[in-house]
């Protein structure tokens, strides 16, 4: 089940989970299995565990989950403080398991490192919704929902390619994220795959930052010194993009277009104003956390998703990485994170 856009996708999923219409068109009696809707039903306690909200996107994840849970009278949300320390986050999840919550929503700081605690929950009869950073075993979760890192890079590359397709010997640079994360490699792989469709474009430099404002500024300054002229920049993350834009302004450079990543409100506001190098951002929507709460509630109530013939929720849901430009920014501004 692929969401067409972040906003439309989240809306579609919410509509699906909350549909009051019967599924008669399915032709197999799926309506008898029960579809989750807005009406109060069986009470569900959802345990929510994520990493420390030391980043704009992660903070938005927490807000999306909490706000979504408040929407339902039958949902109680048990949230942990969040931690980037694997051992500490495992301890927090084990506390939720011991409290015998009905369902767990887990965004692990490190999916591989937290696989065992996911398995422990599942073996205890607590279904797990694995949010974004995937566990190493499918047995550690009932459903996975998250973004498409490869698709994020792919769509950024295609957007840049279309902007530069008529420019001879075009040059692009990439400001990546944390290189030891699989998601960073996936974003780069998608970006490189897209650029192969444009033989006139060459990626001349790539530097990895740390998803922070400070690292974005420092690394971008290095890129600008190393490359006296280029035509486009893809920055993996809008938070580190704040620093990157500072370095660009300090260097007095404006000969290129910039594409961001994740979809911050600040980036979207700059795109709308259209008075800087910032021309687009590729979404990695934190609305996935709201959808994870919908999934957890449906699991806890033993219900399915409206609009599908199956009785059960899917095993995985991948969100689409839409490209936000001046032409569609008004549509996406409401889901931009701060």
TrEMBL record:
PANTHER family, A to Z:
D-ALLOSE-BINDING PERIPLASMIC PROTEIN-RELATED
- Molecular function, one GO term: carbohydrate binding
The compartments listed are: Cell envelope
Tell me a GO cellular component: cell envelope
Which is one Pfam family of this protein?
Peripla_BP_4
* Name of the featured protein: Substrate-binding domain-containing protein
**Stated family:** Belongs to the bacterial solute-binding protein 2 family.
Q: Signal as a keyword?
A: yes
Alphabetized UniProt keyword annotations? Signal
Major subcellular location class:
other
Q: Which domain of life is it from?
A: Bacteria
